[in-house]
Amino acid sequence: MNRRGFLKLAAGAGVAAVAAPRALRALAKPPIAMTVYKTPTCGCCHSWIGHVEKNGFKVKVVDMADLTPIKRTAGVPEKLESCHTALVGSYVVEGHVPADLIHKMLKEKPAIAGIAVGGMVVGSPGMEQGTVKLPYDVTAFSRDGKTSVYARR
Asked: How far apart are CA 33 and CA 42, in angstroms?
């Protein structure tokens, strides 16, 4: 039953108005666990974390002075490196990847190591600067270094 149907049923059954929000929360999906590795002083990482938290992820932040070891262990190609590296499920998310594409990857379960927005593209989540939004690719990558365009924004 969808939420609208539930609300109609609850209203028709005379359920108190305060019970409906509690019941809706019970129907909501639990947040998806994600660990984000970043440097302690990165402001855009903080903004991107806010973006993914608003979109259903529960983030554990690990501040590190040097992210190179986590990037190498995770298999992030050097040309795709950005300011933070996230692990979610069995996947790597590098840089300012939009949350909807992370959800898509988790749902579709492609045979890749992860997805990345290399660099720090103005207009990507966490890198918003006024109305300026540059086009960018979200790149899929495999452990053996192969890459392909996952999505264009």
From this structure: 21
